[in-house]
Amino acid sequence: MVKRNKNLKKLKSGYLFPEITRRKNKILETEPEAKIISLGIGNTTEHLKPYITEALVDGAAGLGTPEGYSGYGDEQGMTQLRTRIAENIYNNKVEPEEVFVSDGAKCDIGRLQLLFGNNVTIAIQDPAYPVYVDGSVIIGATGEYKENTQGFDKIVYMPCTPENDFFPDLKKLQRTDLIYFCSPNNPTGAVATKKQLKKLVDFAKANKSIILYDAAYAKFIKDKDLPKTIFEIPGARECAIEVNSFSKIAGFTGVRLGWTVVPNELKYEDDSSVREDWNRIMTTIFNGASNIVQMGGLGSLEESGLKEMQETVDYYMENAKIIKEGLDELNIKSYWNGNSPYIWAEFPGKDSWDIFSDILEKCHVVTTPGAGFGPAGQGFIRFSSFGHKEEVIEAIERLKEKL
Amino acid sequence: MVKRNKNLKKLKSGYLFPEITRRKNKILETEPEAKIISLGIGNTTEHLKPYITEALVDGAAGLGTPEGYSGYGDEQGMTQLRTRIAENIYNNKVEPEEVFVSDGAKCDIGRLQLLFGNNVTIAIQDPAYPVYVDGSVIIGATGEYKENTQGFDKIVYMPCTPENDFFPDLKKLQRTDLIYFCSPNNPTGAVATKKQLKKLVDFAKANKSIILYDAAYAKFIKDKDLPKTIFEIPGARECAIEVNSFSKIAGFTGVRLGWTVVPNELKYEDDSSVREDWNRIMTTIFNGASNIVQMGGLGSLEESGLKEMQETVDYYMENAKIIKEGLDELNIKSYWNGNSPYIWAEFPGKDSWDIFSDILEKCHVVTTPGAGFGPAGQGFIRFSSFGHKEEVIEAIERLKEKL
C-alpha cells in the first residue's frame, strides 16, 4: 500500500486559522445567536473601490469579445503588469523579468519551498506567519516536532520579542541557507529599520544565505525613513528574494494576486541562477494568475487605483489606531508602531489559547493566539485591524465592558 | 553558499512548451512577417460565451458592493461550486466535501506531487503530459535522466502506442505506488473504454496503488459508452484521485479554474485518510481559486452555461475533424477517435523535432513534437484542434501545399 508522506505526519494538528474557525463554530453551536466579531485572521472586509472594480469588470467583459479574449498567458505574468510593478513598487530598482506575478504570497511561499527543496537549513522569526514553518515541514526540510522546545528540529527559531526590539540577535545566530524575514511583521507588527535590514543583508552576504523577505504589508508603512522593500538595502540583490501581495492593499484576499521578485544577481553555490530555477518552477507547476485578476492588478497600479489602495490602507490603519487606544485604556500592554495593520498585545504569564478563548467566550471577539505563530508568541494575542470600523469599535467596547 | 536543489538539476532543458515558443520566435526573428498558425499548445482561442462572461462580470462587479464583497474564502472552494460539481459532473457519485476547487489541473498535479512526496514509486503513460514527469522530478521522486532510455530512473514508463491500442499491458507492468493515467489522453487522444478502465482499477486495487486520473478532456467524449470519469468504475473510490479542469470547455485557460476529487475511501497503509492530508496541503500552501473565477465556474454549470460549454466543445471538435480529414488526404497516418481535441499523427522512422521543424519552417504551422511527451512519442506529432476554424483550415491547406 501507499505509505503516508512522512513529512505530513510531522505536522502539528490543524493549520492555525482552520483551528480558530473550529473554535468559533463551537461557540455558534451553543449560542447560535452570538454576534461574533473577528479581529482574528487578516481578512479584508471592505468592498473593492470603484476604479479597481472596473478594471476587473472590464477584464472579465473583455474575455467575452474576440479582441479582448486571451487563453494561456505567460506563466510569469503579463509583461505590462511585471513592468508596472517594477516601476511603481520598486522605482525601477528591479527589472520586469525579475518580477513573477502569481496567485498570492502564500502560494509563492509554498513554491519557494519547492524551489529550494529539502536539503537546506532554515531560520525563521519567532513568532512568524505559520506557512514558513508548515510549508518547510511539508517539503521535508525539517525534523520532528519537539514538545519540549515547542518547535521543529532543524529549524533555527529567531526569537523576536519586545526584549530585542523584535529584531533577532544576529551575533548569536547560527548560519542557515534560508532566512525567512517578514516586515512589517505578521504577527508582531514590528517594522525593521534600514539599519536593521542592513545588518540582516550583511549577515546573509557574509554567510552566503538567502533571505526570503515577505513584504506583504509594506504599503502599510507610513514613516518615510522605514524601508518598504529589501531592495532599498545595498547588497540585497545578491542575497534576497521578496514576496509581495495585492491582498490587503487592494482588498484582493479572495481575488488572488501577488508577486515574487528574484534578482538576476542571486546565485547558487555552483554559480547557476536562482531566477532561472524559479522560472522553471513557475512554468512547470503553475499556469499564471488569472488574466481577469491581472487586469485588476494593472488597474490598482494606475494613478486612480493607487489612490484607492491608499484609501483602503488608511481605513484599516484607522481601525488599528482604535484597537491600540482601546488596549491602552484597558491597560493591556501592546505594541503598534503606526506602520502595520496588526497590534501585538502582551498578557504576561498567561497562555495564548486561554486568553483567546477568554476573549472569544466573554466578548464574542475572535483574535489570534500568539502561540499559534511560534513558541515566542506565547503570552501574546494578535489583534487584526481588518474589519468594518463600526465592528472594530464595538469589539473594543465589549472588551472594555466584559474582559 | 546555498546549494542548488539537486532535483532541479536533473530536469531536461526547458519545459516542452517554452521550448516550442523559443523555436517559433526564432522563425519570427528571421521572418518577422511570417503568419504563424498554432496547432501546438492546447490553448483555447474562442472568446467566452455570453452567459459565462456575465457570471464573471457579475462576480467582479459584486466585489465592488458591500453585499457582494468577499475576502478569503474556503481554500477548498465555495460550497455551492463544490456541490454543483458533485451533482453535475459526477451525478452525486462523489460528495461535495471530496471536491477541491483550484486554480487549475496543472497546479493541482504539482500539489498532488507534494502530497505524496519523494518516497513513492511512479508509473506514467508514455507519451504523457510533461507535468507528470517534470513535477515528479522536482519533488525528488525520480532518479537521474538516462540518455539511453530517454527517461528518468525510478519512473516506470507505460508505452501507449498504436500496437497496444494506447492502453498499457498491465500483465507485464510492475507495481508502483502511483499510476498517472489521462483519458481522453493528452497527447494521443486515446480514450480508455470502461473495460480498460475496469482493468486499470482492478490492477490498482490488487497492487494497492493509487491512480492519479486526469480527466481534463472528459467533456470531449461523445460516445455514450465511454466513461467520462473514473468514478463510473466500481472500486475506483478506493484507489483513485481525479483531476479536472474548466480550461478547455469553458475557455478558462487564462481564467484559471479546475478541481480535484479525493474520495473519502482512499487510505494510506496506516489507514489514515488521503483526503485529510490533501485538505492540509490545500489549506497550507494554497489560498483558494479566485472568488471571481469561481462565480464563472458556477455560471458554467448552470443550464445556460452548460449549453455554452457544449457549443465550445463542438466548435473545437469540428476543427479536429478538419485536421483529421486533411491528414487523411495527405496520407499521413493519424489517430483520432472523435472523442478528443488532439490528433496524433505518425511519421514512422522520423524524428519528432525534425518533423516539427519541417512543418514550422515550410508551412509556418506550430505543432507539438511527440518526443516531447516521452520516448514512445518519438516519430509522432500532436495536432491540437484549439484554434480559430479559419486558421485551422488554412493550416491544413498549407500542409497540403507545402509539405
Notes on the protein architecture:
With 403 residues, chain A is an alpha/beta fold. Helices cover 39% and strands 14% of the residues of chain A. The first copy, chain A, has 13 helices and 15 strands. In chain A, the strands form four sheets. A seven-stranded mixed β-sheet of chain A has the order 2-10-9-8-7-3-6, sandwiched between helices. In chain A, a hairpin with a 6-residue loop joins β11 and β12. In chain A, α3 runs antiparallel to α10, α5 (105-116) runs parallel beside α6 (130-139) and α11 packs parallel to α13. The longest helix of chain A has 27 residues, at 303-329.
Q: What's the order of the H and E elements of chain A? A: HHEHHEHEHEEEEHEEHEHHHEEHEEEH
Number of strands of chain A: 15
Which of globular, elongated, flat, extended, rod-shaped describes the shape of chain A?
globular
Average the pLDDT over all residues of chain A and give the rounded result: 96
Distance between the termini of chain A: 53 Å
Q: Which two chains have the most extensive interface, and how many residues on each? A: A-B, 91 and 91 residues
Strand content of chain A: 5-15%
Pairing-aware structural class of the strands and helices of chain A?
alpha/beta
Unreliable runs of chain A: none
By oligomeric state, this entry counts as homodimer
Helix content of chain A: 25-40%
User: How are the strands of the biggest sheet of chain A laid out side by side?
Assistant: 2-10-9-8-7-3-6
Largest sheet of chain A: 7 strands, mixed
What's the total helix number of chain A? 13
Q: Provide the gyration radius of chain A in Å.
A: 21 Å
